[in-house]
Specification:
Helix content: over 70%
Number of helices: 7
Radius of gyration: 17 Å
Number of strands: 0
Largest sheet: none
Structural class: mainly alpha
């Protein structure tokens, strides 16, 4: 859904890499809104009556299911095409694989936070914290102009730091149960 919305509402207009043109505010805003829609849909999926079971089963099902869909749509085709055309993997393939692993951990942590947000004993502080973390997650998961300015390896490192922070926040709230 995220890829369809980005392709529909955000035109692909990358300026020349050495130009001084800045980001378009409307496009960056739309990327953030689309990223937040993904988090909202995850929250709605967590509350589906068809998703029965204990807390840990629901969190695992949501996290792995979302990771599988994300990886199939964003990473499988580039890896397949890259391997078929050259017969070997390059550094771009390694980055795609690392990004897939980071996505898996981030979606598992985000599903934990969503479950904590929906808990009966969640207070206003927990809900605010989870909302801010979800907004930051949508920023790091989008193709923001700021993130596009970084080299691929630096971007992967920044995402790794973000995923570590996200996981530690999810662990903190999980231990409160």
């Amino acid at each position: 859904m995220q890829m369809v919305l980005v392709a529909t509402f955000i035109p692909h207009s990358h300026p020349h890499p050495h130009s001084q043109a800045g980001p378009e505010i409307s496009q960056e805003f739309m990327k953030a809104v689309i990223g937040m829609m993904e988090v909202l849909v995850m929250g709605m999926a967590y509350n589906l009556p068809q998703l029965r079971g204990e807390y840990t089963e629901k969190v695992t099902c949501l996290g792995i299911g979302w990771t599988l869909a994300d990886s199939l749509l964003k990473r499988t085709a580039p890896l397949w095409i890259g391997a078929c055309s050259t017969g070997e993997f390059d550094s771009k393939s390694i980055l795609i694989a690392l990004d897939g692993n980071l996505a898996m951990v981030s979606f598992m942590a985000l599903s934990r936070l969503i479950s904590r947000y929906n808990a009966r004993d969640a207070d206003c502080g927990i809900r605010r914290t989870v909302s801010v973390v979800a907004l930051l997650h949508s920023f790091f998961n989008s193709d923001s102009w700021i993130l596009e300015q970084l080299s691929p390896w630096v971007l992967c490192s920044v995402k790794a730091v973000w995923v570590a922070v996200l996981w530690s926040i999810a662990q903190k709230f999980f231990q409160r149960l």
